[in-house]
Amino acid sequence: MEDLFSYADELGPSKIIHVYEPSINLKAVLVVDNVAKGPSIGGVRMAEDVSTEECVRLARAMTFKNAAAGLPHGGGKAVLYGDPKMPKAEKQLLIRALSQSLRLEEDYIFAPDMGTDEECMAWVRDEIGRVVALPRELGGIPLDEIGATGWGLSHVVDVALNYCGFDLDGARFVIQGFGAVGKHTARFLSQKGAVLVAAADSQGAIHNPNGLDAQALLALKDEGKPLSDYPDAEALQRDDVIDVECDIWIPAARPDVINEANVQRLNSKLVVEGANIPFTHEAERILHKKGVLCVPDFIANAGGVICAAMEYHGANESAALQAIAEKLQRNTRLVLEASKSKGVLPRQAAMELARQRVEKAMSFRRFSSFSTAPGFV
Length: 377
Prior knowledge:
The structure is a single chain. The protein is α/β, with parallel strands linked by helices. It has helices at 2-5, 52-68, 88-101, 118-127, 143-146, 148-160, 180-191, 214-222, 281-290, 297-300, 303-312, 317-342, 346-363; strands at residues 15-21, 26-34, 40-47, 75-81, 108-112, 172-176, 195-201, 204-207, 234-236, 248-251, 270-272, 293-295, 375-376. It folds into two domains: 2-141, Rossmann fold (3-Layer(aba) Sandwich), CATH 3.40.50; 148-314 and 321-347, Rossmann fold, CATH 3.40.50. It has 13 helices and 13 strands. The strands form two sheets. Strands 9-8-7-6-10-11-12 form a seven-stranded mixed beta sheet. A six-stranded mixed beta sheet has the order 5-3-4-2-1-13. The longest helix is centred in the last third of the chain and has 26 residues, at 317-342.
């Protein structure tokens, strides 16, 4: 537990719960980081190599993300150990069992993340009702279907370019992680005139310096096919997209894909973090010294949680999309202006913005500070 305590501070985490039921091979972790602004919203991430440490870090990112976005919610996260591509019946059993195990944890609202989707949230709703990002048939705003996070990222890029010295029209971009976030980001940026030159998914990567057809790649993914089936591109190893020269590099997959060991390989002018914690802090510092602008995750990729929160409070899809654009443009501008005027990393400016909002919310609570060790259950 020593490493986990190193993440604890006055903000949280307030609660860490381990769920284990060997008879059905259920193993999961819930971290509720901070609920000063309201019950926490955070996705259920499913993968075979998730960890408690990763969950703690992701929950804090959600605290900052929700605070920066001005949402009446704190931050939390759940990780579920398992292959997200397991047979549907097995996956449904695990999701439903996890929901029941956490039915009394009212400080946490379920949402989708890597490895889970709107259908999984429908199972949660059927079990306990405390969930967001439901299918349309259940009255939800399906954030993965509409590409809420990618929609937000495209607006973050619009603002960030004012600090980079080049235009979006004709700008070359790379998507690392062509899943729910990455594919829609590619779609929206391509519609604005940017040129997708490389993309990677879990099975490999492709590259064409003259451009890839984003719509054709979306069609491949919708059919369940790998990117390597795209005919007019050079096949690469998955991590080779780090080396592809571009103007905008967008990580939209797993944590820590760029770190001290490989950051020098990155050849881009702008990084917009579509995934949660995709860069280590040291990697961001190295890029900053090289003059590469890096918009941090909890500012850039908040479109999904904004959409989810607005659904939870009864808004419709058009209102959610408008709010995503307005909130993310404003926050990106605030963070990059503060970074420029104070001479600090964008992440530091973003953390100051979010922390101030969380601490202000905490000041209104009866117990206004996190003064005891986190609860390990």
